[in-house]
Amino acid sequence: MELDELRNELNGIDRKLVELIARRQQIVGRIGKTKLTTGRATRDFEREKVVLGLAREQARALSVDPDLAESIMASLIRSSLASQERDRVAAEGRGDGQSVLLIGGAGKMGGWFAEFFASQGYAVTIADTTIEDGDRCYKDWHDAGVDFDVIVVAAPLAISGQILLELATLKPRGLVFDIGSLKSPLKAGLREMAAAGCKVTSLHPMFGPDTNLLSGRHLIFVDAGSADATRTAREMFSATMVTQLEMNLEDHDRLIAYVLGLSHALNIAFFTALAESGEAAPRLAKLSSTTFDSQLLISSAVARENPYLYFEIQHLNEFGIGPLDALCDSVNRIRKLVADGDQAGFVELMRHGKEYLATRSAPSDAV
Ligand SMILES: O=C(O)C(=O)C[C@]1(C(=O)O)C=C[C@@H](O)C=C1
């Protein structure tokens, strides 16, 4: 058969595959509605196990790679979960015409929250220095007033701290929360607001603005002295599958100094060392080792992030220097072991790390 004929045959098969996906998604939509009306949870881990198991079994019987079949089914399940989650958030419509002001709402995460609230039926007003005044749009948040059911402070960290301090004097009637990656620069504002009797709490979404499925993601709630505010904010996410964590103000930044600060710094150090090595990245990438490729992928993603935000995450964390010192110490230790030819010391370092990492269980609910 000619190449063109074979490709035509493939086109037909691919079309049928897409048709089957569309039919699957229609049924998934009906399942989602049934779950809503019968009060069942969106995610069903048992059922997912059955679906993935069946796909592997059938693949084996047809001499198809079971890993391939499983990964295709996992993608389809992800898409089912995302659409069922979206439908549930919209159906529960907690907004019901309530009003929300998003300060910094034209930024990336601010935009995510704007969409999240709009999908729940909230009337969304955006204030952001990068936009012009218009319908429910303000360049200066002061012009919007503070008469809202919810105010979200999603501005850069240093500015968010100032806004919270100002809000403490304006005493808004509604729920107020920030979404900062760090709480050190916001502590004074959060405390002032709580002391002024405001319904204030603090959130840290551990996911990026491109996230459209909250299952497997974490959202940290940091109580700022108003348990009522934290409860109300938690309820806003009850229709989603996000994992809610509660943390206190002090623990948050100490832990985040490792989770964000250390991992960002490690990747910045990696690409800085590479950039200054004199070896061209494409040439190195061609040599392609599994570890190098994975590391390059992560550090490329870090390099594309907002450098001002990343600087704030390092510099404004009062616990930030500890993990950086630990990183320098570790690199110096490796350097010394290598320079001294200390094989036993090097092996011990790796054994110790393996033992430490074995205590950290892998995320089990990622499809
Ligand atoms: O069977 C269901 O309950 C579905 O919603 C369908 C489906 C799937 O795509 O196969 C999606 C999500 C569930 O967690 C399990 C399975």
TrEMBL record:
Known EC number(s)? 5.4.99.5
Under SUPFAM superfamilies, the record lists:
6-phosphogluconate dehydrogenase C-terminal domain-like (SSF48179), Chorismate mutase II (SSF48600), NAD(P)-binding Rossmann-fold domains (SSF51735)
Checking Pfam families in the record gives: CM_2 (PF01817), PDH_C (PF20463), PDH_N (PF02153)
- GO biological process assignments: chorismate metabolic process; tyrosine biosynthetic process
Chorismate mutase domain: which residues? 1-88
Instruction: List GO molecular-function terms, semicolon-separated.
Output: chorismate mutase activity; NAD+ binding; prephenate dehydrogenase (NAD+) activity; prephenate dehydrogenase (NADP+) activity
Domain Prephenate/arogenate dehydrogenase: residue ranges: 98-367
Alphabetically ordered keywords of this record = Oxidoreductase
Question: Broadest EC class?
Answer: isomerase
Per the record's keyword annotation, is Plastid included, yes or no? no
Database matches in SMART domains? CM_2 (SM00830)
Protein name according to UniProt = chorismate mutase
Source organism per UniProt: Woeseia oceani
